[in-house]
Amino acid sequence: MKVAVVTDASDASDVLSSLPLLSHELQLVPAKSASIRQLEGSDVVVIDVTGNNLLAARDFCRAVAAAHQDLPVVAAIAETSLIALDGSWAVDDFLLPFASPVEIDARLRLLLTRRPVPVETAEDSQVVAIGRLVVDEMTYVARLGSKPLDLTYKEFELLHFLVKNAGRVYSREQLLQDVWGYDYFGGARTVDVHVRRLRAKLGREYEGVILTVRNVGYKAIDPEELE
C-alpha cells in the first residue's frame, strides 16, 4: 500500500510514531497547496493536523478531498483537538499520534474498501474559497493563505457574498439589497467604499479578485483569471 504522509515534519514517525514500523510504502509530501498534485497514485493519504491552526488544517483536508475524490483521507490529529473534528473536514478517518501498529494497519486496510467522504457542495458548505482566499461563514473569518484578514462585519458579509457567487455580476443596488438589506437607506456609494477597503486589505496580489464591471457593478473572479 502506498501511503502519502502530508506534513512539515522530517520523518513519518513524527506524525504517527508506529507508521514506519509497517511494511507500507511511505511518501513524505510537504504540507502546502502546491503539493496536492503529488498525491496522485497514492492509495491513502495521511494529513498531519497536529499543529495549532486547525482551521487551516481543515481547509487543507477539504482541498485534498476535492482534488482527489477517490483518495481516502486520514487526519493524524492530537486527542485534544478531536472536539474540532466534524463532517466539514471531509476526512474518512482519523488516527492519534501514538496509535499502535496494529490499529494503524487495520484502519488503513479498511479505508481501501470504503467510499471516500465527499466535500460538501458549494450550496451546502459554510466555507467558500477562491484561490488562497478562504471565507468561513461559520467562524466569520476570512483568510488569505494562513493570514486572517481584519474585516468589519459588513466587509466580511460583502466579501462572502461575492466569493460565494463568484463569476456573477451584481449591481450596487443588488449588493445593497442582498448584503445590507431592504431597510438600509444609504446610497450606492456605500458599496464602493466597502469594495475599496476590501481591496486594500486583500493586498496587491488579490485586490483584483473583486473586479469592477464598468457601468454595471462588481463580481468576484478566480485569481487565475488575473494572470
Q: What is the residue-mean pLDDT, rounded to a whole number?
A: 86
Which stretches are low in confidence, meaning pLDDT under 50 for 5 or more residues running?
none
Largest sheet: 5 strands, parallel
| Quaternary state of the chains | single chain
What percentage of amino acids are in beta strands?
A: 15-25%
Q: What is the strand arrangement across the widest sheet?
A: 2-1-3-4-5
Rg computed from alpha carbons, rounded to a whole number of angstroms: 20 Å
Supply the number of helical segments: 5
Assign an overall shape.
Answer: elongated
Helical percent range? 25-40%
Number of extended strands: 12
Taken in chain order, the helices and strands follow as EEEHEEHEEEEHEHHEE
Helix vs. strand class: alpha/beta
Distance between the ends: 39 Å
Structural overview:
- The protein is elongated, with a radius of gyration of 20 Å.
- The strands form three sheets. It has a five-stranded parallel sheet with strand order 2-1-3-4-5, with helices on both faces.
- Helix 3 packs across helix 4.
- The chain has helices at 54-67, 101-111, 153-164, 172-180, 189-206, and strands at residues 2-6, 25-29, 44-48, 73-76, 93-95, 127-130, 133-136, 141-144, 147-148, 170-171, 210-213, 217-220.
- Strand 6 (127-130) and strand 7 (133-136) form a beta hairpin.
- It is an alpha/beta fold and 227 residues long.
